[in-house]
């Protein structure tokens, strides 16, 4: 058992609303001064300042990433959402730096961890374990995971929430929103308030580990008989609002499949797409976070291990029907059907200018390209993900698209985009057309 009083490479989580506000305020000021300084230098040298380029500079991304990683909690989570580079508003160079937030976070020191566990389980909690590793297996935005062996022999992964996360969600999200606006990281006129409010609601759900344990149990029951997936069981006797105990499953990061045989990569990615279609069209409930760390691989059972069910969303029936229409129309390149489905989902409304619609509809048709590949779609040979990102940039920045679709549609878009990026990374060839056909309407099945 690791000594909880020994020094480790951890960084204490900043606590207190004023302390966290001051840190983000200082970061926003630093980013603003960096942009202003670059503009002054350009003016002195007789050049026209590229204000957008200055705001999105890799140096600014590094400053923002470092501070959000130190703060963790909701502030880091919003940074992770910003970094999803599947058609969002950030240039690829900026998003690439922010993407480090999706890989890992700094753990808290052992003494701070001990205080959190004492508060959750009482000071005699160590007697309930024959082993508890103080050094975490991994750390993320709102918690870190430890391996432990209970006295009765259960092998557990224990997720411990960073202190103060729940209390700081609303203020963190508001502060990050202010930082984004003040530092010029998004175009003027984009109203991100609906997204920030939705982010608050989602983060409050993710910070409730008892609710996540219930979702974990539901998905374990739903997929327990599948040979393709492994979902850990929750352990209620060790679970609280801030502690989640579940089965420890031996596995390795999914990205280690990079050099696996083609058939292995194809099968794994195909399993994940098939699961997404089942979540949307069969269950009406979806794990909405496509972070690569949420998927691992069990080489012995040749199964995908699914983790992190804090971001499970119930999908409204109207959205599910709209996406069925969208995919069915996209499989046929049916322009009228695409437009009708886009309006039904909420990508278009009565005030959408024709020029923006003319950019949006081809982008939606391009996103359905894998559905039109009769012999399977080769993600490794395709530039689809990059094209969707560039077209999204053109729509958001050049055409001035300001309409924010419903948050559930954005989460579904994000999940599809995340799987596209994973498929691209693993150079997978997948029969998306065949996987989707059972869930689409008769036109889509006949295509």
What are the defining features of this structure?
about 450 residues, alpha+beta, five-stranded antiparallel β-sheet, four-stranded mixed β-sheet, 18 helices, about 55% helix, globular, disordered C terminus
Distance between the termini: 59 Å
Low-confidence stretches: 32-56, 83-89, 442-447
Rounded mean pLDDT score: 78
* Helix/sheet category: alpha+beta
Largest sheet: 5 strands, antiparallel
Q: What is the 3D form? A: globular
Characterise this structure:
The chain is an alpha+beta fold and about 450 residues long. Among the domains are: about 15-105 and about 170-190, no CATH class; about 250-445, no CATH class. The protein contains 18 helices and 13 strands. The strands form 4 sheets. Strands 1, 2, 3, 4 and 6 form a 5-stranded antiparallel β-sheet that branches.
Brief synopsis:
This protein has helices at 17-44, 51-55, 58-71, 73-83, 92-98, 100-103, 110-121, 165-183, 193-206, 209-223, 262-283, 317-332, 335-345, 354-367, 384-398, 407-425, 432-436, 442-446, and strands at 129-132, 138-139, 143-150, 155-161, 229-230, 243-247, 252-253, 285-287, 295-298, 303-306, 312-314, 377-378, 429-430. With 447 residues, the chain is α+β, with helices and mostly antiparallel strands. The radius of gyration is 23 Å and the shape is globular.
